[in-house]
Write a structure and sequence with these properties.
Helix content: 25-40%
Number of helices: 7
Radius of gyration: 18 Å
Order of helices and strands: EEEHEEHEHHHEHEHEE
CATH topology of the domain at 39-128 and 198-258: Rossmann fold
CATH class of the domain at 39-128 and 198-258: Alpha Beta
CATH architecture of the domain at 39-128 and 198-258: 3-Layer(aba) Sandwich
Number of strands: 10
CATH superfamily of the domain at 39-128 and 198-258: P-loop containing nucleotide triphosphate hydrolases
Structural class: alpha/beta
Strand order of the largest sheet: 6-7-8-3-9-10
Length: about 270
């Protein structure tokens, strides 16, 4: 089996995506996903070529996250969590096995279809926030809709409404350098939602935050997931944070060692 290089960056330009609110729609709430998407991986394997040879990262990984599910990917550094999230998000090419998101075989996506999947089906949230320093909070959120080819009036309205939903309206004109870590992550969450994705992938979203801010960010993510009906998958080292999810996929040395369903999930009104 050959080694597949990392996926190319997403090209700019309009693409197909989910249904959006009309520019004439008077509703004050941004268009939300119809519902979440099931994620099913079967016998996934992935490896990289390192200085001393081939390094296996994922080995025979099989799992199912149900539609509207809330799953935590847990394990030590190097267990393969971020690689698995990258495969699901279309940032890495599937090398072996099958991976379906909402019934679509991710391995078959290429070109414009793959770009549209990354932009509109999936919303990404990263540990380092991924905001552009030269843009304001509002412009950072809006940029994701610009790349999706959304009309100016719709994207500006939706971006402003999402910033309001995450409590960042008073800071909308500030650049990332003037925001706290928690504020930057709130902006990143708004950006992830601007194209109405049905699957949210969060890679260590509280990794750079203190305990109190981490709690606020997780409550916000969970609230938005419930309100919008998205499937949420979170990578974390933190077992307490993982315990908030309704499902835990535990990885160790590239293998899933447990697929426990907790049945608990986040407590309402926390």
């Amino acid at each position: 089996m050959g080694i597949v290089r990392r996926a190319d960056p997403v090209p700019p330009g309009p693409t197909a995506g989910p249904r959006y609110a009309s520019v004439d729609d008077p509703s004050p709430v941004p268009a939300a996903a119809d519902d979440g998407l099931a994620v099913v991986g079967t016998a996934l394997a992935h490896r990289y070529e390192g200085p001393s040879g081939v390094v296996p990262v994922l080995v025979d990984v099989t799992f199912t996250v149900p539609r509207d599910g809330y799953a935590a990917l847990v394990g030590p550094s190097g267990a393969g969590k971020t690689t698995l999230l990258s495969l699901i998000g279309g940032l890495e090419a599937v090398q072996a096995g099958t991976l379906e998101v909402g019934g679509t075989d991710v391995a078959t996506l290429e070109g414009d279809d793959l770009a549209a999947y990354r932009r509109s089906t999936v919303g990404f949230i990263f540990q380092n926030f991924g905001l552009l320093d030269a843009l304001t909070a509002l412009e950072n959120v809006e940029l994701a809709a610009v790349l999706a080819g959304e009309r100016s009036a719709v994207r500006k309205r939706r971006s402003a409404e999402l910033l309001d939903a995450v409590g960042m309206t008073p800071r909308a004109a500030h650049r990332p350098g003037a925001l706290s870590g928690g504020e930057r992550q709130r902006v990143a969450i708004a950006r992830a939602l601007v194209n109405s994705p049905r699957l949210i992938l969060a890679d260590e979203p509280t990794g750079n935050l203190d305990a109190d801010t981490s709690e606020e960010v997780m409550q916000l993510l969970e609230s938005l997931r419930r309100d919008r009906g998205c499937t949420l998958m979170v990578v974390t080292h933190d077992r307490a944070l993982a315990g908030r999810a309704t499902q835990q996929l535990v990885l160790d040395r590239g293998r899933i060692t447990s697929t426990a369903t907790t049945g608990a999930g986040p407590q309402s009104g926390r």
